[in-house]
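stuck on this chain:
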Amino acid sequence: MRKLSCLVVALAAALAASACAPPPVPQARTGSGAPAEAPRQAAAQPAASGLTPVRFGWGKQVSDAGYFLLPELGKKYGLDIDLVPFRRYPEALTALATGEVELSHVGYPQISFILEQGIRNAKVIAGQVDGGTNLTMHNDVPVAEWTDLLGKKIGIFPGGPGDLNFRSSLGRHNLDVSRVEVVKLTAPGPQLYQALKTREIDGFVAWEPFQATPYVEGYAYYAPLDIMDNPTRGVNGVIAVNTDWAAKNPDTVVKFLQAVLDGQRHMLENKDEWAQVTAEQLGIPIEVTRESIKHFDLPPNLELHQREAQEMSRLMKEYAMAQKDWSAEIPTVLDYSYLERASGKPASELGKD
């Protein structure tokens, strides 16, 4: 498998091409709040190479790991995989529902949102990443216990997994979030780092590599508090499919998951390559990616955690991130059949309760 190291050059061209993808089409809604019939996107056209075209939405992040290898790995299974980048999970879900992509990486919260938004042509078929959410604090702000957070200014991206994990973990330690000065963040990157450097905030909850960056640069540290110590166990990302397309192309879905499995397992076995590929593709220091990957858990069989998805739905309602607790309906959105075929394992060993 070491020969995959030489794929980086080929991947660069594939990823550069995907950056020109059109923006997602907003999901139309009726006056009642239910989704209206969305405009259909043209289906992926047959590739001149004879490979079956597949458009896959992704975030192009460190945690994506094996996704970086998909354009090349897909060829082994007769697929021409086009990586289409999206900045946020809601955008990726909309693109999936409207047919702009056939498959997409989204977050565990989107499992509940598929139900809440009445999206009838999307199901979640595999897990991909857990973890990667931590509390980063400025070096001058010592935090050793949960009570040390009282009165501190903590930056949060509202409505995301980090927000939910932080609020839930505070509750498990008998602290109300109102006793922490929550600062709503809008975008990661330079502005976030500057806010931390100048102590506009004392710390923040985000995702990698945005937490590793200030740590590697020497002005912040990872707080020794596990904000994933809650019923969701910090589950993070999943793979969803457009069911209209999947019903016509079930074998292609299985082959796609087989390619993802190959990439996932390869990166788990070759973490130096994982760090190198992501550093080059994201244009960040390899020291940052090396630190970032320490904080992720990549399930080797793409396990999809049903119980944790249900717990997340309950917490989303509790913290007003969703209008309803959809936990009882969550199983209707999870389809393990493709992953069973791709992995050769029964659903009971892949996270289904």
Observations:
- The longest helix spans residues 250-269.
- The domain at 6-23+41-131+236-305+333-349 is CATH 3.40.190.10 (D-Maltodextrin-Binding Protein; domain 2).
